[in-house]
Amino acid sequence: MAILQVNNLRKGFGDTDVLKGISFSLEQGQVLAIIGSSGGGKSTLLRCLNFLETPDEGEIWVAGKQLLSASEEEIRQNRLHFGLVFQNFNLFPQYSVLENITLAPTLLKQGTAEQIREKAMGLLEKVGLKEKAESYPHQLSGGQQQRVAIARALALNPQILCFDEPTSALDPELTGEVLRVIRGLKNGGNTMIVVTHEMEFARSVADVVMFMADGVIEEMDAPEQVFGDPRSEKTRAFIRGAQEKF
Amino acid sequence: MFTQVTLELLGGFWETIKIFLLTLAFSIPLGLVVCFGSMNKWSPFRRLEAGPLHFLSGWKPIRWLTRTFVWIIRGTPLMLQLIIIFYGPGLMFGLPSMPRMTATIVAFSINYACYFSEIYRGGIESISRGQYEAGQVLGMTKSQIFFRVVLLQVVKRIMAPMSNEIITLVKDTSLARIIGIYEIIWSGEQFIKKGLIWPLFYTGAFYLIFSGALTILFGKLEKKLSYFRG
Description:
The complex is a heterodimer of chains A (246) and B (230).
Chain A: E1 4-13, E2 16-26, E3 31-35, H1 42-49, E4 57-62, E5 65-66, H2 72-79, E6 82-85, H3 97-107, H4 113-126, H5 142-154, E7 160-164, H6 172-187, E8 191-195, H7 199-205, E9 208-213, E10 216-221, H8 223-228, H9 233-244
Parallel strand pairs in A: 3-8, 3-9, 6-7, 7-8
Antiparallel strand pairs in A: 1-2, 1-4, 4-5, 9-10
Helix pairs in contact in A: 3-4, 3-5, 4-5, 5-6
Chain B: H1 2-39, H2 61-75, H3 78-93, H4 100-125, H5 129-137, H6 142-172, H7 184-189, H8 198-224
Helix pairs in contact in B: 1-2, 1-4, 2-4, 3-4, 4-6, 5-6, 6-8
């Protein structure tokens, strides 16, 4: 059974249809990379999955259970199936690195203070920032902040971890450390959806690549297929354009 | 003579301090209520978008009412508000008038709450949407996001305009004499009849020392919040 099943998801803002009927599924442990030009609907899709936007139509199923969004409380519960790492990290500036990670589990009463702390320290070790536990976000580099944000998302054990262009706000020399962490998570069996402009990363890490254009899934297949022998003309043009940059 | 003047002025200064402290105690929380009102999004007619009454669809009555109220309070002199609140109930409705100090605190608290509400609103609206969204995807409730994530960042950002407004309040307390509060300037003015001008300058020293102390206090608070950026 698929861990995630999305059926005919539609979302518009005013007169603009951003998602025009998106359907796909994802298996447990798979990594899905979503690529495509800006404005194609990638981020909106991710935001709908995290219920930061309410879809106009369509269904989202996680592990065989449909997520409904009738009440605020339902929406809040739905969000816990997913984790989201933002382009701009969005760490809480007034909390230390450790507190950023422990805040949500503490509010959700997911254990004793000691258990939550221990788990957070374990996650910090995983992203290589154990020694920064007491630092504040502004004392860290962008790459370090993003790794903290990943640890913060992991602290709630989401079934599916989403990344919205996790390296787009970073200096080029800092993207490597973040991508390495994501690669490590894949090896740890995490199910992930990564919206990215890093084509090489998508090709090497993803199990499935989705190319989105104008609010529809133009092509979705194994990375060798999408990058090596794209079926659609739009995909081909996009991949060619992306390769020419290098 | 100096001791006598000092004692007299201290009597007036005590009234000044009372107005100052009570006004802050009421207006700081009341300002938050006014602020939430002026940001309220309730819009009962939004379903009329397509019909002939479409011009009503965007109307947010709570926001509109609050902002109109803030406009009136900020747009008229505090002295006028003092007079109306003290004499108004009696002259208009034949009600017994409030004690002078009560009327003063009511007028000052409402007036300052309106100013504070706009400072709060500016602070709250300056927090990036990403902070709210980060809280949301971590499963926090609206009030958890406000109190655990947003509030301290807002406090840090509004420190400078708040200290400005609070120092203005120190000096605005002198307006209360218009409804008969024996505050420090009035007590200093008593000595003019005796041909003494220096007690008036002396009242100025009280204000300076008081606002100086507040400046130091705010500097300390700002420093305390400087451990983070944002």
